Amino acid sequence: MKKQLHKSIMLLALFSAGYAFAQSQILEGRVLDEKDNTPIQGVKIKINDQEVTTDISGYYSINLSPGTNYIITVSSNGYNKKEISEVTIKNEGNTHLDIVLDKPSAKEKEIEGVVIRSNARKETIASTIGLQKNAGVVSQVIGVEAIKRSPDRNTGEVLKRVSGVSLFDGKYIVVRGLSDRYNQAMLNGIQLSSTEPDRKTFSFDLFPANVIETLVINKTFIPEYTGEWGGGLIQVNTKDIPNKDFFNVQVGVGGNTITMGQEFLMQKGGKWDFLGIDDGYRKLPTNMPAKNGFSILNEAQKTEIGKGYTKNFGFNSVGYPENISLQLDGGFNTKVFGKDLGVIAVLNYSNNKRRTESTNRFFTINDQTADTNFDYFTEKYSNDVILGGMLNLSLKFNSNNKISLKNIITNNTVNHMSFRTGKDFEFDPVNGTNIVAREIGFKQTTFYNSTINGTHKIDALGGLTFNWYGSFGILDQYIPLLQRLQYNQHPDMAGSPYLALISNGLSQKSGSVFYSTLSDYLYNAGGDVSKTFTLFGEKQTIKGGYLFQVKDRIYNSRPFSVRLENYNQGLLSQPFETIFNPENFGADGRFTFDEIAGNQYRYIANTILNAGYLQFDNNFTPWLRAVWGLRVENFDQLVGSTKKSDDRFVNTRVTDFLPALNLTFKVNPKMNIRLAGSQTVVRPEFREVSPLAYYDFDLGATVIGNKFIERTKITSADLRWEYYPRTGEIISVAGFYKNFKKPIELYFNQSGVGTSNTFNYLNVDKADAYGLELEFRKKLDFISAFRNFTFGGNFAYIKNRVTDEATKIDRPMQGQSPYTINLSLQYDAEKSGWSSTVLFNMIGRRILYVGNDQVPPIWEAPRPLLDFQLAKKIWNKKGEIKLNISDILNRRAKFYHDLNDNGKYDNKDALAIERVTGTNISLTLGYNF
């Protein structure tokens, strides 16, 4: 702990060196069109004798003395002039004020010199409401002010406050009860690849909250954005050019209720493990040849290499397993050749230790009788380390031209050790065998994305706006060493010892020594052109664009195994800590070392996506708006091998036409009725198509890809009534329908016991989902004692059925819950600096793994989640201390076979998986210089 703290202080000193912190106070914000939220360029903002003009993105900033009430005059050609009073500049930090302008009505045009009068509070209300109310799609918007006033540290925590959105494992998003594979993430308008090589998902804990400008969660599709999603599209927009130099520091400590006060067991490793970086302790030996070269070596040569690579299963004990975190972020603006340059930098480090207790069982099931095939209890100790950074640079040439370069990199490492006990019936179906097993693993995942984009308004072409972008991303996963070893003991034989499960065969279950590398490379290039004009007295916009995307993957794994040609009880009875000592390898009845043959353990993959769209944003009348158009995506995927003769070869070419229509009926300034329809797709990930067979220690089974699975096509329809009584409040009722054609599901295939159990990806014919959704957010200031409280919630009821003519199935789709409940109670006293949030979430039971004719599906039972956050501004509101408690109830997660088919878990069902993760508690301290 002392060493880690010392390194954190050194990092803080290095990062803060060279920063100069200005003390001037700034009024800043954006000017938006009241009808559609588009930024307005060239707006004149005048305060006393100072005047500034908004840039191409609608931004403005002006230096003012604090402690004085100002009157702002805002004017632009074609819009009503606005006068805003009671604008007070904060003594500390920037004052943010977004402004909305509306165009004059027919009567107002007849009157010369019309001025709309407002005040700062009303203008904040109007702009906050306008972000969501005036959007062209069904969406949820979180603005910069809401983010500033929340105690949330990263994007994942902010998203927990959005109605209809819940998080799995604190970072993976679930929208409308649909699992994370049906959602998509975008960063500054660029589609992001999955942050996990083995699943279609994105980890939202990568982005610190205080560098976010806005978060937008779209629930309906429009052609200008990617068409590869079906639940929610989450847009993360980071800040461009800071209006003032800033530097923030946040440090935190914490723990888990089932980890604190107990010894934490960690595998022996290298000196850089605390940074999530392997120093070479686990790497392949330097004399290890490639797969083909290794296969031609003789047994003695292979064993000589293997004994230097294979590790024993000893461990170190940590007395107090603390969690620590450090976050540094800063920014400044300056002039470069007379042009505005803005820089924002972030450094993020966290080191968390988790202990998970789980029970795994597989059964042979006949009607309502379940006979156990194996019964395992596992304690898993995981040390999760995240080390990352962000660097954004923006250069504004003038009010019409701006170029930005935005970079993010994160290294996410899981260093784990598992201890297993239980009973296995693989080798003795009658009496079974007692088992003890261990697994040690180190998985290092590096995510990098760099994007350059430009925005240009060309006055010579009538105000045509041109946006262009290019990006490069890398996702690297490195598993230098993953080992498993199991010991069996026969209970029917008195005095029988525990013997290592190692024989003359090669196994991924016991005696396994596994190595793998995976590299994804993602390239994006594209742009769009838009033109705004007036027709029939209303604003109209036409927009078209093109995207070219290439994604490459290179995967290579080396599944080695220790084996024993002839039975040797002396060797097999040695303990975990010494069994793989170098002297135990060699000839004369000792261990040998070899590699499991087969080309299915490596593959290459490539996708090429060409996408174009044409989109119209039409205001037909003052009360009717339509955002509609067509997106065309041509997708070419190659997986396995470039040779058609290779049985791993998979080539898919398909063109999708993705139409969208979003209608908004503006009943009055506070009420909308929305109607939307669209078609989107969700494509399989490389891992799901590849033939790779990988034994999963946690599942106790092998996961295998399927080269024949196809994309899922999703047809959606939404009808929504929404009412915005005042700032921060909403009441809405929505109905939605989704049709899934060929959804992808993970099936459990119990062809035997032990390693013969598999999980396979398969398509079913179709699924239909009907849903009703109620959303509300209400301030409780009508009761004086609750004037600083806001109560919100979201309730969704979804009826979902999967049907397949071949298998005659009729059940819910994998991962789809029949209901979701989200409730929040927020307290925010800005003057005193106290804020607090209580969050409750629960989803209905859903299928974790699909079964077959012999084995019913495994269901996940409902589990209530209760989180609490408390924050207090200190040190003249330049500092903040925050307490976060997540999963307070700490209910056991239960996954079961519903033997009596009564729709709930009870003692007559077969409990397949049971897991407890504990309550997480953290305390953070932040300071804004």
Could you outline the blueprint of secondary structure elements for this entry?
Elements lengths: L1 H15 L9 E8 L10 E4 L2 E4 L5 E5 L5 E7 L5 E8 L6 E2 L2 E3 L4 H5 L4 E5 H14 L5 E4 L1 H5 L6 H5 L5 E4 L3 E4 L7 E5 L2 E2 L20 E7 L13 E7 L7 E11 L7 E4 L23 H5 L3 H11 L5 E4 L4 E14 L2 E28 L2 E30 L2 E24 L8 E26 L5 E26 L9 E2 L11 E24 L2 E26 L5 H4 L19 E4 L6 E20 L2 E17 L9 E19 L2 E12 L3 H4 L3 E4 L4 E4 L7 E12 L6 E12 L2 E7 L6 E7 L2 E14 L9 E16 L4 E3 L7 E11 L4 E10 L2 E4 L8 E3 L4 E10 L4 E8 L6 E5 L12 E7 L3 E9 L1
Question: What do you see in this structure?
Answer:
There is one protein chain. With 929 residues, the chain is mostly beta strands. It has nine helices and 51 strands. The strands form seven sheets. It has a 22-stranded antiparallel β-barrel. Strand 2 (44-47) and strand 3 form a beta hairpin. The longest helix has 15 residues, at 2-16. The two termini are 26 Å apart. The model is unreliable at 1-23 (pLDDT under 50).
